[in-house]
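Please predict the structure of the following assembly.
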Amino acid sequence: MKITINVNGKQQRFDVEPNTLLLNLIRDEMSLTGTKYGCGIGECGACTVLLDGDAVLACMMLAVDADGHRVDTVEGLSDGNKLHPIQQAYLDEGAVQCGFCTPGFIMSTKALLDKNPNPNEAEIREYLNGNICRCTGYVNIVKAVQCAAVKMKE
Amino acid sequence: MTRKSDYVTVGKDTQRKDGVAKVTGSEKFASDLSLPGMLHMRLLKSSFPHAKVLKVHTREAEKLGAYTLTPEEVPDIKYCPRLVSTPEATYKDWRILAKKPLYVGEPIAAVAADTEEEAQLAVEALKVDYEQLPAYFDAEESRKPGATQLHDAIELKGTIINPERNIACTLDLQEGDTDAAWKECDEVVERTYRTNRRYHLQLETKSVLVKPEIDGGISVWSTTQSIHNTRLLLHEIFGLPMGKIRVYKTPLGSSFGSSIQVNTIVPIAVAMALKTRKPVKLTMTREEDIRDHVSYNMIFKVKLGAKKDGTLVVGHLDAVLDLGSHQIQAYALLGCMAGWWVSLYRLKAKSYKSVAVYTNKTPSCAFRGYGNPQVSWMVETIMDELAEKIGIDPLDFRLKNYIGEGEIFWGQGPTVKSVIRSSGVEEILKRGAKIVDWYNRPRAGNQTGRYRKGLGMGRGFHTSSAGAPVPGTVVDFSGAIIKLNEDGTVDYITALMDHGGGTLEAHAKIIAEELCLPLDNVNVISADTSTTVYDVCTHASRGIYSGGGAALKVAKQVKEKLRTFAARMLDAEASALSFRVDNDRKQGVIYAEGIKGREVTFKEIAYNARHKNWGTIAAVDSYRQPACPPHFTGYFIEVTVDTWTGKVKLDSVVAGADIGTVINPKLAAGQVHGGLAQGWSMAVMEDMSYDAKTGDLINNGNLTDYKIPYPRDMPDLEDFEVFFVETVEPTGPFGAKGIGEGALNPVAGTVANAIQNALDIRFYELPLSKERILRAIMEKEGQ
Ligand code: FES
Ligand code: FES
């Protein structure tokens, strides 16, 4: 099936099977391997991308359902040489250890802060509650979201 | 020794060098790699916990155009996937593809095809004739007389041994006159503890990519904590010359011990690549990964005695290790468990009996702490119970009996003893106690009502590396290469893997500090087995202590060469020259103090050395640490138990740590945060149970039924305090020790003690699940 998706701001055409997962399209066809496979069943959030600005799990979505929509992945966040404030905040706060969960967390953070630029801690934890990190215990991740909220207002 | 505050780079928070790659999605983990013309592999795994494979029918799969690989086609040798121990401690009982699978999920055959989907169809087309055999899911059952033997023959240093009654290995130890010591005791507590079986749930599932090279060799990118041990094992199995096996460092999507061993899929993929002469890739699904590895589960029968005045005297531990179906490092673990058990508190006499038993479950491997979280859970809860019996405050009991500076430390067991040279134990306990107002905590049994609060404490430690003054049965040394570039920067090349904790960032800081270079001028180069010197493995919290020790040793050698070249250029006495960082010029500078104009930058030295044909300044060396100093931790945890549901809520945490000099402050605190989260879920959430009928996991390999904490399950930022006490480890690079495992080890014991404080109930089995807690409350208090 022929579909068109706006990937990180660029219109692209793909020919996919009706059962192709959005995650596989992103990783295999688009070669955007920043979006990760962690479970394939919607439990870990490692595959989080934005669909028209909303955080979605790419492992739980068919590629055809993204037809005509905009998909943002972690690769599209920084502009050229400058990191996006969220990315910078994750580094400044030591929120990145192995980094395998990081793209998913960063995309969830983006969706959150775009909707709610001043989340309190409970709101941050609530919003990120579908993402698993096995390394950080979430402490520095929550701090990074707070720090990003400040940076994005600057 | 320089005071910590004088350091320029060590102890400062910096942006990790691999950070940009990690936040932009450009970091390539093993599962992100691909090569042109690559085949995708899938595995056929045993559906039975114990069976004989009579035949694998491959014709249908081959009709679909797939390549197949059967047990007959792989080298018929026994191997052990972990190469950290010396041969006398390495038990070999694995086969690349099993002819007699011993757990549900053990690989029997493999297929490779152009796409993952074709490979999946092909693997479904394979048919196997099995003969089912009896299986055991309990160590006590499998070692009963008359039980079917699971392994006929296993290998130890070239000799065949016959593991009768499914006993894989044993270790007994005794020190001091225990009979006399028991007579000195006024109080004795004797208990049996059972741990849970936990899955690492490292976020990246295991993966491997193999490329056959035109010269008959192979290149390998895999999830591993040791590239050199991967190469050694592949050499041992396939007989390829080592120069033709190149294993590349590949970032780890966390591991926590699950890739200390060479992963099961690696030799299978190599066999397939050698057969097809094409690059092959195999990434485990989560459902496969969850059946691939698990922590050891243990039964402890323990007895501990003390005098009325609170002096600990003697202990006995009887430990049974349920190792699952294959040995990865069970024998080494029996030694370590003895070490974990006797290293926190002084016992003038002790005895230890241990046995590791085969069962038809997932093979167990190290999981952050290598048995120490389990042993420390037992030690810290029985210490509380004994303190209560004597009538002494549990904190005072610990302060009276802890093993500290100047004392002998068993660490990783009897072969790795050394003397403790730095200890912040007392400060951790006293400072923590003050923050939580320890001596005014609720008294156990005083509370009624639905919600009850409890405050508990627990201690922990782990060795930093497995170094020792004399060689034992553990290999532990590291190595480094440093060379000066023509722009005055240095390239640092190490085989040591960073799990994500920032180990290599710490190494870069150590090098920058020693050479007086801006941190930006230290390039951490990713390399492979052909271009690095040996490092054993990133495990045992040894990354900073051992690997950083090697980096420092080699940096010192480079420094001397720089000094010699600078002396020639400046016409000065080499020993009189000083080093400093020049941040404006972004250079290291060597100068003769007080003499104007007599200074030269590293860049000028390198430039001059090239034009004058003096050569490259570089050094390479190995380094063995003479000790494995303990890093110490202490936790104070407050919980609320809902007595109607049995649910425990984590209210607040105070964690203190003595890790020597802190090199990466935020990342070191991050180790404690992560350790707390893992320890919390070990205490109250995690367990892998098996269906006794099918031998498969009750959770069916689904993460939906294997819960670990999400962000909301952890305490608020203001309720989680981490502090580091000031110590300097004389044998560590710039005074540093490890942190990774000590951060986790005390948590489960602390949580259990907090729950006891809330309910006045002690638990002897993990996890402290809602059901278990509710049942205990109902037993104690009625409906
Ligand atoms: S991979 Fe999509 S939620 Fe885990
Ligand atoms: S940083 Fe490793 S899983 Fe989050």
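The pocket of FE2/S2 (inorganic) cluster (ligand 2) is lined by residues A 97-101, 133-136; B 203, 254, 500 (CB under 6 Å). Chain B has a mean pLDDT of 97.
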